[in-house]
Design a protein that fits this description.
Elements (H helix, E strand, L loop, with lengths): L1 H29 L39 H6 L31 E2 L12 E4 L4 E3 L13 E3 L2 H6 L3 E2 L3
Parallel strand pairs: 3-5
Antiparallel strand pairs: 1-4, 2-3, 2-4
Length: 163
């Protein structure tokens, strides 16, 4: 039954297509609808020119360089060194000079592909993400930098991992 329905539908479709092709051929011979020549394109008129926008220059604050250029260092005369003061004969030992400690960097290089205990936050610079201990991918992350805390990592422009 299904095959017979398919055959009848196919036959009707083919006959309908053949009739449509014959009707189109007869219509073109009889003159049918006259062909219309395409209209000439309209003249192109340029858009009016807008006045150029003048952007005022940005006012920036001058930056202070931490070091002088090499040319400045070569041209300036060496400062006069004061003569060393003589020590008093009564003091047996001089007081030790106080060490000036520089502030520690907010991040350190990873030691052997793992974060040191003092800096447990692992950061990947290529993705801009940092991983905290206990996170989903913390154990398998090979860090580029290790931070002391999450605030230091965020200060460097990194964002926390979502999981």
């Amino acid at each position: 039954m299904l095959r017979r329905s398919f055959r009848i539908g196919l036959l009707v479709g083919l006959l309908g297509g053949a009739l449509a092709a014959v009707a189109k051929a007869l219509q073109s011979r009889a003159g049918g609808a006259p062909e219309v020549a395409p209209a000439a394109p309209a003249k192109w008129t340029p858009l009016p020119q807008a006045e150029p926008v003048v952007v005022p220059p940005r006012v920036t604050t001058p930056t202070v360089r931490a070091t002088a250029p090499i040319a400045d260092l070569q041209e300036s005369p060496a400062p006069a060194t004061p003569a060393p003061a003589k020590k008093a004969a009564t003091s047996k030992k001089a007081a030790p000079a106080k060490k000036v400690e520089e502030p520690a960097a907010p991040w350190v290089e990873p030691a052997g592909g793992d974060a040191p205990p003092s800096h447990p936050i692992k950061a990947k610079m290529s993705s801009g993400i940092y991983h905290s201990p206990g996170g989903l991918n913390y154990d398998r992350t090979k860090p580029d930098r290790c931070y002391r805390d999450a605030a230091a990592a965020e200060a460097d422009g990194l964002r926390p991992a979502k999981r």
